[in-house]
Amino acid sequence: MTPVRILVPAGALGLGWDADALEAGLARGPDLIAIDGGSTDSGPSYLGRGVSKYARAQIAGEWGTLIDAAHRAGCPLVIGTAGTCGAGAAVDWMLEITRDHLARAGRQAKIALLYSDQDAAGLAAAWDRVTPLPGAPEVGPEMLADCTNIVALAGAEQVQAALATGADIVICGRATDTAILAALPLARGCHAGAAWHGAKVGECGALCCTHPDTGVIELLFDATGFTVTPMAEASRATPRTVAAHLLYENADPVVLHEPGGRLDTSAATYGPQGRAVRVEGSEWIPGPYTVKLEAARMAGHGVMSLVLIRDPRYVAGIDAWCASLEARARARIAARMPGQGYDLELRRIGRDATLGAAEPGRAVPDEIGVMAQIVADTPEAAREVAKLVNPLLLHHPLTPEEPMPTFAFPFSPPECDLGPQYAFVLHHVLALDDPMAAFRLEVVDG
């Protein structure tokens, strides 16, 4: 077999890369340029709305550079999870950007589009083939109709089908981060364990190296393993940086589950080769073919209020203050808006807004921002609830007998509309007899 050389410009389209490093990678003659386009990291809104989190101008600029780079290298260009969420609307958005660039460049290209969207009624009818993963919410097939977008995560087989069309550019809907990197080496007979392990290591570009912001790495796959090499001169891969990437976004640092099986890295060895690292010994264990499902539904409309608290007594007693304020607010809402459904959360910025009860720190800050987040079924109801909370955020005392305090709103009005709010619905897998059964592949001219 012939080794397969894959160039990864960055961890995601929109993050940027070192231009000299990209040129260095192109000079080595890649067989494929592949980059991830998104994830669920930024929450359910993007899947719910079917849009990208990144600015179109940024995506268009970077994607145009990669289209030109792949053209010069004479190799295909692949993006996975297009437009952050991988919904069909995001695939079409990327197609539009692609065609705009090709038109300006005066070139044409063959473009394969891999759609991951799932029909709610069809999925409900096949619910006996759906299995919840650990920690999945309680979901029944009747809830699928409320979802604005449902996607399945493509694996290597679906990406291989897209590449087999001979496309110059492949735009994938939702896919596993590893699939776009593992597909070609697997198709050309490279070591299966190495293909999946290398894909996991390289999914975020130079994050598996020093100087991760340079972005660009090369993955070289062959019959026994893979080699990861950073393309920026200042960057280097080490056994530690490469092995550590199995901890990234993975519940198990040894085993990685993918459609059609699992990767076991327990016997992997990591050998330094100058600025590169050679990895061998990983094992791919075939299993039932399942694809992960993701979905989002609109949970309501959101409003946020923010108050800044600096009084040392209130900062020290912020837990008690928030608890009594919330109780008083809920009583006021029940009295003034009986029957109104809503969610109210107080997040203490500077104390434990990120980790909540899991926060290990015990330091007392100089000030705390208390952010009230309200979600209700209509924008009007959410704003009304927020306005009922407003005077409590400004004047609620720590104890009943003390004078009424006054805190600081950083802007006026303190209520900010957050728009439609979404929630993830599915954390399940769908069993497939045919890997392409849940996906749609189209080939168009650009």
- The low-confidence parts are none
- The helical percent reads 25-40%
Mean pLDDT: 96
Count every beta strand, where a strand is a DSSP E run of 2 or more residues: 20
Give the neighbour order of strands across the main sheet. Answer: 12-13-9-8-1-2-3-7-4-20
Number of discrete helical segments? 12
Strand content: 25-35%
Radius of gyration: 25 Å
Q: Sum up the overall morphology in one term.
A: globular
Give a short account of the largest sheet: 10 strands, mixed
How many domains?
2
What would you call the structural class? alpha+beta
Distance between the termini: 33 Å
Summarize this entry quickly.
It holds the Pfam family AtuA. The chain has 446 residues and is α+β, with helices and mostly antiparallel strands.
What does this structure look like?
The chain is α+β, with helices and mostly antiparallel strands. It has two domains: 248 residues, no CATH class; 125 residues, Alpha-Beta Plaits (2-Layer Sandwich), CATH 3.30.70. It is 29% helix and 29% strand. The chain is built from twelve helices and 20 strands. The strands form three sheets. A ten-stranded mixed beta sheet has the order 12-13-9-8-1-2-3-7-4-20, sandwiched between helices. Strands 5, 6, 15, 16, 17, 18 and 19 form a seven-stranded antiparallel beta sheet that branches. Strands 10-11-14 form a three-stranded antiparallel beta sheet, with helices on one face. It is globular, with a radius of gyration of 25 Å. This is Acyclic terpene utilization AtuA family protein. InterPro entries: AtuA_N. Pfam families: AtuA. It comes from Jannaschia ovalis.
